[in-house]
Amino acid sequence: LFSSLSYFGILEERYAKCFRIEAYVELGSWLLVTSSLLLMLQFHFVSSAAKQLIDDEKSNSESSKLDIEEVRSTAEGQKAVTSINPRFTDYYSFAVVKVQKRLSQDEVEL
């Protein structure tokens, strides 16, 4: 294409050469991509843990909620069970320690 333009006098001969670039990715670019992915994972880890903490504090203050499933009443008086979204302990079960809490006699309801 450029040689044709040069032949017809549209371009000068010095501008009729092919334009060539050798592109490559610098090491710093790979470090930037890797660190941004690690930051994204860390943000998800911390924000989901904080969200579950807030949700747990709310559910502890309300005694009528179920731990695993939420029950809502329908217009007909029937109860419909809806599941909750995955939580921090579902995603990152390897990062939590299971602690068993012993209930006193006053806390146990028969």
List its salient traits.
3 helices; mainly alpha; 110 residues; two-stranded antiparallel sheet
In short:
This protein has 110 residues and is mostly helical.
Description:
The chain is mainly alpha-helical. It is built from 3 helices and 2 strands. It has helices spanning 2-7, 27-61, 88-91, and strands at 69-73, 79-83. Strand 1 (69-73) and strand 2 form a beta hairpin.
Query: Low-confidence runs (pLDDT<50, min 5 residues)?
Result: 63-70
Oligomer: single chain
Order of helices and strands: HHEEH
Record field, number of beta strands? 2
Shape: rod-shaped
Number of H/I helices: 3
Sheet-strand content, in percent, reads 5-15%
Helix content estimate: 40-55%
Structural class designation: mainly alpha
Mean pLDDT: 76
In spatial order, strands of the major sheet run 1-2
SSE blueprint and pairings:
Layout: H1 2-7, H2 27-61, E1 69-73, E2 79-83, H3 88-91
Antiparallel strand pairs: 1-2
